[in-house]
Amino acid sequence: MVKSWCHLCMRENETQLLVVGGGVGGVMAAVTAARRGIRVVLTEPTDWLGGVLTAQGVPPDEHVWIEQFGSTATYREYRNAVREYYRRYYPLTDEARSRRALNPGGAKVSDLCHEPRVTVAVLETLVAPLRGSGLLRVLLEHEPTAAETDGDRVTAVTVRSRRTGTTTVISADWVVDASETGELLPLAGVEHVTGAEARADTGEPHAAAVADPLNMQPVSVCFALDHRPEEDHTIDRPEGYDLFRTTRAVDWPEGQLSLTAPHPKTRKPVRHQFWPNPDDDPLAIRPDYADQRVGSMDRNLWTFRRIAARANFRPETYPSDLTLVNWPQMDYWGGPVFDHPDADAHVRAARELSRSFLYWLQTEAPRPDGGTGWPGLRLRGDVLGDTADGLAKSPYIRESRRIRAEHTIVEQELSLAVRGDAGAVTYADSVGVGMYRIDLHPSTGGDPYIDIGCCPFELPLGALVPVRVENLLPGAKNIGTTHITNGAYRMPLMEWNIGEVTGHLIAFCVQHKATPRQVRADEDLLADFTREVETAGIERHWPRVAGY
């Protein structure tokens, strides 16, 4: 059969590496491998690269040392490129333009809150020269539907165009599953787990007594707002509004459609405030990383994940701030959005919850002046890609299917309460670093918040190596973590590191005619590989810093 790249006649293709999923991990796996001479096909179900940072609309949550260390060199280049994009193309004030650590949104959750389209643009600049050279082909709006295997190898994956319905069989020597939910794992018969493990299996202090594969972190459907007080932008009352308005879950005495939410650590109700467009100085806002979601830092939810602070731009450029709504009130824990017979219905319900919360803000939310409702809140679907309902293209997925790996990272390896001054476990096969509290939101199984302090931790290569399959690697949140430790390893910075290392590993294996398992098991090969990733600017160990 003739293999062809032609858009119209494409039915079957061959490549060295197929990367399924165009989030930050998938992009970095593809870009890294292609830069090393590997021919790559990258597929993505939406029309935006970037996953959690773009299609899901979530600004990056990062650790306190991110401006100095604690990431790969390419991630630092990405952050610098976002800032340079604003300096080059946006009408910033002179003060904002001259600020080295420019934070376009002047937000409290991150030093780099910004509009998702900017990350889309930056990622497109990474892939553009590789696409031009023919080393990388990007298939947007394509999703996997089937996989073919031969023993312990994945030989081909069928993808379907969401736009035309055309299916394409892509044969590949190597496959990376960088999808948001680990979609390839069941299609290819790769051993994996979902949901919560039992304490008897992991020994984790916070694990459940009984395993529950359907007990997962909630999803959230984000949306962007500005405020035009002279206009009424109230949306139609959502059909599910009354149900969400009256439901009272554990730890939510006023329900989710309120400004009262449980403190993640204490589970006691915290009364937040909300008022649009405060007269604050966005250049003076600094994150309080000792407590990233509660306390003084998000008393006004408007500035929590603000993505454009009008004061950063020349007068009248932004009549209003833009804020990104990803708050506890729109966490949807009604049921899993994969591996469940009602998964699609739960995705729709998550979108309905977000629109219901918006309607509540517009009509019933208490105002500081004693009134109720902010009808001038305008849904800015154009900022998130012009979906039919004005919300983000995709739900924010906190928890994926996870491979059964040669090494599964458990709570005892990074918990502050367990490790204390000893710090997180140091791995001989470390291929990266990360830092985030173990952050579990109320779950589909009925668990409340689980919030655990962490030591700055490492990424062991063993967590990227499946127990059996030889040529498929994880490229996102689907590495060898547990339900508990996924809560720390799931952040975009870590996904970027995972994808980048996966790209290097595949290129190294091609060069040395080895498998990932052999690289990890052979002392000399492992030493050569870890030297390569260090030379590429991937930090493998932390300096002496205290966790939180």
TrEMBL record:
EC number: 1.-.-.-
Source species, domain of life: Bacteria
SUPFAM superfamilies: FAD/NAD(P)-binding domain (SSF51905)
Entries under InterPro entries matching the protein: FAD/NAD-bd_sf, NadB
A Pfam cross-reference name: FAD_oxidored
Stretches for region Disordered: 257-279
Name listed for the protein in its UniProt record: FAD-dependent oxidoreductase
Source organism of this protein record: Promicromonospora kroppenstedtii
